[in-house]
Structure formats: structure tokens, C-alpha cells
Design a protein that fits this description.
The protein is an alpha+beta fold and 214 residues long. It has 5 helices and 11 strands, in the order αβββββαβαβαββββα. The two termini are 39 Å apart. This is SCO family protein. Keywords: Copper.
């Protein structure tokens, strides 16, 4: 019995170590750059990062790249009058938000792709109805073209007007996980509970990665 306990205990330690050492991939474009380190030329990999941005949230607070310093975050694109996937996405994002509520190391950004309708009061009402308080989860309002370009060129996502689409706008339903260096570390179908669970697990892995590197 004692030997069995020691075997189980050893396996548990190995499993825990494996989990803590696991790292998420870095997604997106990359390029090799030469630099001089200690007088020697070395090749380093530079990954594409999310471009700087600045928007107002539901409380008329400016949220920009600097606002997210020392935080990882999950981003998505939505509009409050969306009759199709957005309500499902918001519900699933809420479940993640509730798990990390109060943890400023984890933030949430939902970019409105219908700024003509989604004014600050409309976004505030939407956030309040979900039970969101403070700026840990920000519902962002900005110029439509700026948001569309950020989705396409920053988050590897897409949004476009389409008269045949529900609500007149077609957009990606993905949740994008971004690290503290503004690099994309994962993309998950925000309407799929299994992928949302994977995202939650990956958030923990990413947080552990930063603790390991301290």
C-alpha cells in the first residue's frame, strides 16, 4: 500500500510539472531578424503583434494598448442587435468572465462592429444586463472602418456588411487569446462550449507561463 501511494504521488508530481511547463503556440505572421548579442550575430524570431488602438468603453473610459499593460486578454467582435451568434458568444464569454472576475491580469474586450447603433448608452445597457461591472470587460466603441481593419489585420478575424446576413453584418465568432506582449496565443469558436472550455484551460496555462518566467 505504501509503495502504491508513492507511485501515485510521483505520477501526480510529474503530471503537475508537465502542466506547468506546457506552453501555448504563438500564432500569426513571423519573421527572422538578426541582432548582435555579446558581440555575436544571432537570429531571433519576431512575431506579429496587435496594432495599437484606442476606443471608448461602455463607461466612456478610454481603453487602449497601454490600458492592458501586464494583462492577458480575450477579444471578440459583436453588435448588440445581433440576432444570431452574438447572444451565444456573450453568454459563453460571461462564464469565463465570472471565473476570473476581479483578476486584473485577465481582461476582456468586445469590439462593436455596429457603431452607428451601439452608442455608449446602448453598450452600457448591454453590459449591465449581462451583469458586467467595471472595466475588466470592456465593450468598445470606435470608428467602423478602424474596427474592421483591426479585426482583419490585427486579430486575424473578419467583419463585413452583408444585407443577407442576420442583422446586416457578417462577422467571425471567434474568441482571440492575446498575451502580455500583444501576440495571439489562441483562437476559439465562441459558440462552441468545448472550445470555450479549452480557452479557459489555455488561460490558466498562459498565466502559469508568466509565473514561471518571473
Amino acid at each position: 500500500m505504501k509503495r502504491l501511494f508513492l507511485v501515485i504521488f510521483s505520477i501526480s508530481i510529474i503530471s503537475a510539472c508537465s502542466q506547468s511547463e506546457k506552453k501555448l503556440p504563438i500564432l500569426g505572421e513571423r519573421e527572422a531578424v538578426e541582432k548582435i548579442v555579446d558581440g555575436k550575430t544571432v537570429v531571433d524570431t519576431v512575431y506579429k503583434t496587435i496594432p495599437d488602438f484606442s476606443f471608448l468603453n461602455q463607461d466612456s473610459i478610454v481603453i487602449n494598448s497601454d490600458s492592458l499593460t501586464n494583462s492577458i486578454y480575450i477579444a471578440d467582435f459583436f453588435f448588440t442587435s445581433c440576432p444570431s451568434i452574438c447572444p451565444i458568444m456573450s453568454k459563453n464569454m460571461l462564464s469565463i468572465y465570472n471565473k476570473y472576475k476581479g483578476n486584473n491580469e485577465v481582461r476582456f474586450l468586445s469590439y462593436s462592429i455596429d457603431p452607428k447603433h451601439d452608442t455608449i448608452p446602448v453598450l452600457k445597457k448591454y453590459a449591465t444586463k449581462l451583469g458586467v461591472e467595471g472595466s475588466q470587460w470592456s465593450f468598445l466603441l470606435g470608428d467602423r472602418d478602424t474596427v474592421y481593419n483591426l479585426a482583419r489585420n490585427g486579430y486575424m478575424s473578419y467583419t463585413k456588411e452583408n444585407a443577407d446576413a442576420p442583422g446586416g453584418v457578417e462577422h467571425s465568432g471567434y474568441f482571440i487569446l492575446v498575451d502580455k506582449e500583444k501576440r495571439i496565443r489562441g483562437a476559439y469558436d465562441g459558440t462552441d462550449k468545448t472550445q470555450v472550455e479549452t480557452l479557459t484551460n489555455d488561460i490558466d496555462i498562459l498565466l502559469a507561463e508568466y509565473k514561471t518566467n518571473k
